Amino acid sequence: MPEVFATADLIDAHGDALASCETQFRQYGARSAFHGPIATVKCHEDNALVKEQLNQPGEGWVLVVDGGGSLRTALMGDLIAKAAQENGWAGVVINGAVRDVAELAKVDLGIKALGSNPRKSAKTGAGVLDAPVAFGNVVFTPEAWLYSDDDGIVVSEEKLDLPG
């Protein structure tokens, strides 16, 4: 049974020990609440590294993708999202766009992104893996913990004890 939590309750309990992301994301996946340790990708309009990461065992991790806020091309679509679900990822947060929105809604994966665009991205492999990325007044450090629900995203340097 998945652990139940609310980001508002986590903020109430832990205050300034948690970072709260100010970026206003839309929910796209079938899983509206998700959490796990962070892995990162920084890329711009090129999703080769995103695909590479999500095709590896996720073991409950959350991939945070800093696409620089670009809505010009999608960094994830339904095929990559289904691979992420099959490989055990808890969620994906994309500071950029997704596509195949109707299909993403059926995937049991937490998916947050800024918006959607049907245009696919480049696939050259340009980008950086496992380096801190920053947006929404939060630094997402690999191996820190991300908690996301309908209220937003909070980040903790260590795993939090959840109620229940």
TrEMBL record:
Pfam families referenced in this protein's UniProt entry, alphabetically: RraA-like
Zinc as UniProt keyword: no
Top-level class of the enzyme under EC nomenclature: lyase
The protein's Enzyme Commission number: 4.1.1.112, 4.1.3.17
Keyword Lyase: yes
Catalytic activities: oxaloacetate + H(+) = pyruvate + CO2; 4-hydroxy-4-methyl-2-oxoglutarate = 2 pyruvate
Keywords: Lyase, Magnesium, Metal-binding
SUPFAM superfamilies given in the database record: RraA-like
Cofactor: Mg(2+); a divalent metal cation
Biological process, per Gene Ontology: regulation of RNA metabolic process
Residues that bind Mg(2+): D100
InterPro entries documented for this protein: RraA (IPR010203), RraA/RraA-like (IPR005493), RraA/RraA-like_sf (IPR036704)
Function according to Swiss-Prot or TrEMBL: Catalyzes the aldol cleavage of 4-hydroxy-4-methyl-2-oxoglutarate (HMG) into 2 molecules of pyruvate. Also contains a secondary oxaloacetate (OAA) decarboxylase activity due to the common pyruvate enolate transition state formed following C-C bond cleavage in the retro-aldol and decarboxylation reactions.
Assembly: Homotrimer.
Protein family according to the UniProt entry: Belongs to the class II aldolase/RraA-like family.
Protein name: 4-hydroxy-4-methyl-2-oxoglutarate aldolase
Organism: Streptomonospora mangrovi
Gene it is expressed from: rraA
